[in-house]
Amino acid sequence: PWFRTNIDYAHIILNIASCFGTAAFQPLFVSLIRRVDDPLMQLWIIKAAGSLAYDPDGAMLFEIQNLLQKRSIQKNDAALFAICDSTFAICRFMGRPAFFAQGKDILASLFSAQYSENVRDYARETLKRFVEIEF
Hints:
Blueprint: H1 2-5, H2 7-18, H3 26-35, H4 39-52, H5 59-67, H6 71-74, H7 77-94, H8 97-109, H9 117-134
């Protein structure tokens, strides 16, 4: 509740935590992705997760994929663009084929007609970036 009333502080804390690149904050981001419903906070959390990029057990990617099932995010183009970027950043940082497969699945799910044309185009461009890093 404190983070909801002190939005600027929450944003600063998320940015600082994402800069460390350690496993210490990964569980926090997993929990926040799962629980937060505020669109602005979701955007910040998704971006911070991509900035952290350290996801040894794939839990952040899993929660990002689950986040796409929420109606609140399906019409939020800014958050969907952030999902594309964060998915790519996590997969690139972790560098494992299993991560690439899950990241591609996340991006491919954004090709659905329920998403705007801009989101589908951005997901397609992000998927092309996957091809570049796999070789």
